[in-house]
């Protein structure tokens, strides 16, 4: 989640007014897969506890989060954790904090939700009154930091914060501390059944040179310091966890339709995890389809993963205010876009309140956010011919050929507060055996298994009654 202000806003809003492409490019982006080769689709939300640090860290995340996610058919949670809470002193890792991460994974497993662990930072970390990187890993060279009331994101452009990122990326001892931290995490939870993977660092930022505009700085930082950081972390995790997915992020500037400057990051099972926020909406405006922001983002975001043959999962997206006049068009357009270039998404944020929260304290979706709830193929064991979702008719369709691949095709059918009055009607045709398991809140998981060596296409239709 981010809110652009001041000079950063001006630079990015200028870019958003540039002409966009007529349509998104054909991407050639590979899908996310599991170890059996099944094609995976990610549908979920971020889960966080930014209110508690130290001894109370992560206590704001409860079993209810995962039960309610599963009830609405979601299969993934991007769970935020903070380095400052894991390692409050150099080399002193909190066993209590690691145990709480494992407890979260246990809850996720209970409700068949997979977890991406995100090393989160906002305005670098605790030295600047936020959460993320420890104070002991913060070096500012005495440069100033002043808070801007009502504009937390402006802190990224304070001299002390920018210099702290430079030291994190460049100082050998801080590089080692960061990779050591990741090895501790991966060693502790890498074999947990609920773990999907790791997000190396949320929204990495850095230092602008004098006279340098934000897009130029972002491209320079991504192509040099941030690419190198990602590579160090990937290499370190792979020493202790050979199979979990590792998600790497660009700077948040890509949200305005700018191609990333990231270079190649070597390694198996590495995925690209950009965020998809609109400066105009974060700045208090409504979504305007005529500006072509979604189309421009889609065109630009596909370039890097297509070139690197890397799957895409959008790690954060969503409006602060989902009740604006054009909010229905926003959800329609952004969900359709992500279905074209990505393997899925985790929206921001699953909490019980106002603002960015998905639902209110009673668990009812805020206006228009129920558009995120839909049936989908969480895993396909075979070759897809087509899949589609019609939000008006509320109908999901999938056609695929099993072709003897290992594993089971899994269809998630949501329940929860958006369950249609007549439920969901399921129609499956083709050479597969069908079984179902019930989840919380009326949710269902439909499993399709190939019948022996039978060949042929399988069609699946799930529609609201």
UniProtKB/TrEMBL annotation:
One Gene Ontology biological process: lipid catabolic process
Occurrences of domain Glycoside hydrolase family (ranges): 57-351
Source taxon at top rank: Bacteria
Domain Glycoside hydrolase family 5 C-terminal, residue spans: 375-431
Record's keyword terms, sorted: Glycosidase, Hydrolase, Signal
A Pfam match: Glyco_hydro_5_C
Leader peptide range in chain numbering: 1-24
Molecular function in Gene Ontology: endoglycosylceramidase activity
The protein's Enzyme Commission number: 3.2.1.123
Family classification: Belongs to the glycosyl hydrolase 5 (cellulase A) family.
Protein name as it appears in the record: Endoglycosylceramidase
Species in which this protein is naturally found: Nocardioides albus
